[in-house]
Amino acid sequence: MRCPFCGHDETQVKDSRPSEDGAAIRRRRLCPQCEGRFTTFERVQLRELTIVKRSGRRSPFDRDKLARSLAIALRKRPVEPERVERMISVIVRQLESMGETEISSSAVGELVMKQLKQLDDVAYVRYASVYRDFKETEDFARFLGEEGLSEAVDEGR
Fold first, then answer.
1. How far, rounded to the nearest angstrom, does the alpha carbon of residue 157 sit from its chain's CA centroid?
2. In tens digits, what is the pLDDT along the chain, a chain of 157 residues?
3. In angstroms, rounded to a whole number, what is the distance separating the alpha carbons of residues 38 and 27?
4. How far apart are CA 153 and CA 99, in angstroms?
5. Three-class SS of residue 102?
6. The pTM is what?
7. How far apart (Å, rounded) are the C-alpha atoms in residues 90 and 128?
8. Is 76 helix (H, G, I), strand (E, B) or coil?
9. Which of 68, 74, 137, 155 lies 20 to 30 Å from 60 when distance is taken between CA atoms?
């Protein structure tokens, strides 16, 4: 593993242990050149996934991009980072188990919405507003009515 600080090609593993959700190995590393310390995560990847956008453009699936979009939806919400990481792992496993190497962005969005609805109503609505491209307040009202969430949002849940 290349050192992220000085670029040295070889680093030493000082400690390895399973991550919180057991889906990855967490490794603490040390660079013998600059003595920098850093952490890496090793995950099983069943297959290379490609996301097909609405425009038809294709791009490789990026777990970090998924995590960033969830972080935006969950900003300032009382959800533990471990629960978010478990949710990301569940979504990735579901995508990998679909048996397809090319998956539509809408399928990913629906999986994310399903998981967010179980985790946090406010984050679910935030994500839906971007994913479904809400333009006006009526879009929110219609969505909340369809989902039966208007009472939950009114109560601040």
1. 22
2. 999 999 999 999 999 999 766 778 889 999 999 999 999 988 776 668 999 998 999 999 999 999 999 999 999 999 998 899 899 989 998 998 888 899 999 999 999 999 999 999 999 989 988 888 888 888 878 888 887 665 544 544 4
3. 8
4. 37
5. strand
6. 0.66
7. 19
8. coil
9. 74
